[in-house]
Automatic annotation (TrEMBL):
This is Chromosome partitioning protein. It holds the Pfam family AAA_31. SUPFAM superfamilies: P-loop containing nucleoside triphosphate hydrolases. Residues 1-169 form the AAA domain.
Length: 263
């Protein structure tokens, strides 16, 4: 099983859109995927029309009540986000094990919730590096961080890297001194355009960085996918939609396949 977190300090860079579409692409390629919505904006849960107030990720961090795994469709399950997760983070601020709660929940419930049945756990996070995001980083094998063609997007790259390094020093097993942080950090250049100065500048800076796994074009269909709650993979199944934009759909299929190979 592989655990992948979409994280970025900056908001609106495409974490949710890419987490959703990549998860759906994995599912369409015969992988059983569990989605975890760790953003109190709950955008990922909303895409699947889930607005629950109990059995959410909040219960993981509060350590009370049962967490519900919703079976959404073939190969996609979801643990719904909690709109009060930010308050919960504040409440648990003084707990010494606050960054390890997801790790402990996962190991405590591994058998009971049949976690081993999932090929991937995909986690969406809030644009920050607060407690929930740190918990996600600690259990992850891979962090995928979208960066966009803006100056801030690019400096956020270093910001996230530094925060993960700090966490890595902090989250250690005190007897062995080994860090719980083992995730590899990769970047996805997102919303890249052909004809803008900022896109060219971004492409120039990242061209020799092999941790940038993909260049994902800016395309209205990404926006449509979350608004219409229909992933690009599902759109592709409809021949009429596919044929109109086959070049784009083929490109995205190739991009997701490349990402999957490299991580
Ligand atoms: N490649 C793309 N092409 C066009 N639009 C995109 C692309 N990626 C994301 N978007 C759009 O950009 C907006 C922000 O995306 P999204 O909500 O996924 O970002 P986010 O990082 O999850 O934001 P937040 O930090 O608020 O959680 C959305 O309207 C989304 O549809
Ligand atoms: Mg989001």
């Amino acid at each position: 099983m592989k655990i992948i977190t979409f994280a970025a300090i900056k908001g609106g860079v495409g974490k949710t859109t890419l987490a959703f579409n990549y998860a759906e692409w994995l599912a369409a390629n015969d992988n059983n995927v569990l989605l975890l919505d760790l953003d109190h904006q709950c955008n990922l849960s909303q895409i699947y029309n889930h607005y629950d107030t109990d059995g959410t990720v909040g219960n993981i961090f509060l350590g009370n009540g049962d967490v519900k795994i919703h079976s959404i469709k073939q190969n996609i399950s979801l643990i719904v986000g909690d709109m009060h997760l930010d308050d919960i983070e504040t409440d648990i601020e003084n707990k010494t094990n606050k960054n390890m709660l997801l790790y402990m929940w996962l190991s405590d419930n591994y058998e009971k919730l049949h976690i081993a049945d999932y090929d991937y756990i995909i986690i969406d996070t809030h644009p920050d590096f607060a407690t929930a995001t740190k918990n996600a980083v600690i259990i992850s094998n891979t962090i995928l961080s979208p960066i966009t063609p803006s100056e801030h997007g690019y400096s956020a790259k270093f910001n996230l890297e530094e925060r993960i390094n700090e966490l890595s020093k902090e989250a250690i097993d005190f007897s062995t001194r080994k860090s719980y942080v083992t995730a590899k950090l990769f970047f996805l250049a997102n919303m890249v355009r052909h004809n803008t100065k900022s896109s060219h500048e971004l492409l120039e800076v990242i061209k020799d960085d092999d941790r940038v796994l993909a260049k994902i074009p800016e395309k209205e269909l990404f926006n449509r996918s979350t608004l219409d709650k229909m992933s690009l993979s599902t759109m592709t199944d409809d021949h009429k939609i596919y044929i109109k934009q086959s070049k784009f759909f083929d490109e995205i299929n190739q991009i997701f396949s490349d990402i999957n190979q490299k991580i």
